[in-house]
Amino acid sequence: MSERANQLISDILRRVHEAIVENNVTYEEYQAAKQWFIDVGAAGEWPLFGDVFVEHVVEEQAFSNRSGSQGTILGPFHLPDAPLLDAPFELPHRPDESGDRTRVTGRVTDVDGRPLANANLDIWQADAEGRYSGFMPGPPDGNLRGQVRTDTDGRYEYVTVIPGPYTIPLDGPTGRMTAAAGWSPWRPAHIHLIVSAEGFEPLVTQLFIDSSDYLDTDVAGAVKPELIVHPEPVGDGEFAVSYDFALAPA
Ligand code: MBD
Ligand code: FE
């Protein structure tokens, strides 16, 4: 028996019990909730549900006192072992990949601004239609997933396309719950990154595109103002974004 488990489980159940009493929950509502739990499991949506509705509070709590750049939630769509890219550092994509072509550049430093050479950036994102490779029909395996390393000045760059906003599946139990509550099911357009370097805390974060809808109504509650970027047109229909990451010591 773990005192931590006793404390946490008791506290969560007490709050559920209080919600039932305060809202006069009926037997019909209890049976519907039980069926909904079953449906979430059958649909394989517990990771989605957790990362959309719970993870942001864990992230804020875990890292509220960390120095360096802001992080945000990991979400359910990271895959390990994305290819390490060489110049010209283009995330793998289809020949006719839609979306505005964009070069992302910047530096990785420690919290005092000293450059970190050979830091790793593990990058993944949805395509222009909001679909993640490996999880949704459409994009081929590995699409818009890759890793790059910083040079001796701590500089990195990669080329991608601006992702589209993402909606949680509307026909599944998580989407049905969201619709029942009258909430928006959308996440604003974002690029995921894990920035890591020897001797530093890995930074799990996202960059949000400032022209996207839903920045103020992210269903996952994961937008932070410091993480919103403005892609600048650089001609020929292409864009550029610059963003620097400062890593906290391990
Ligand atoms: C996403 O793309 C995402 O980043 C999160 C956190 C949850 C659902 C979909
Ligand atoms: Fe995402």
Protein described:
This protein has 5 helices and 12 strands. It is of the alpha/beta class.
Keywords for this entry:
250 residues, alpha/beta, five-stranded mixed beta sheet, 5 helices, 25% helix, globular, binds 3-methylcatechol, binds fe (iii) ion
Cofactors, ions, other ligands: 3-methylcatechol, fe (iii) ion
The general outline is: globular
Tally of individual helices: 5
Kindly state the number of beta strands: 12
Instruction: From the alpha carbons, calculate the radius of gyration and give it in angstroms.
Output: 20 Å
> Low-confidence stretches at least 5 residues in length (pLDDT < 50)?
none
* Beta content: 15-25%
Order of secondary-structure elements? HHHHEEEEEHEEEEEEE
Instruction: Sketch the major β-sheet.
Output: 5 strands, mixed
Measure the end-to-end span: 31 Å
Structural class: alpha/beta
Provide the fold topology.
Layout: H1 3-22, H2 27-42, H3 46-53, H4 55-63, E1 101-110, E2 120-125, E3 145-149, E4 155-161, E5 166-167, H5 173-181, E6 186-187, E7 190-196, E8 203-209, E9 228-229, E10 232-235, E11 238-242, E12 245-247
Condensed summary:
The chain has 250 residues and is α/β, with parallel strands linked by helices. It has five helices and twelve strands.
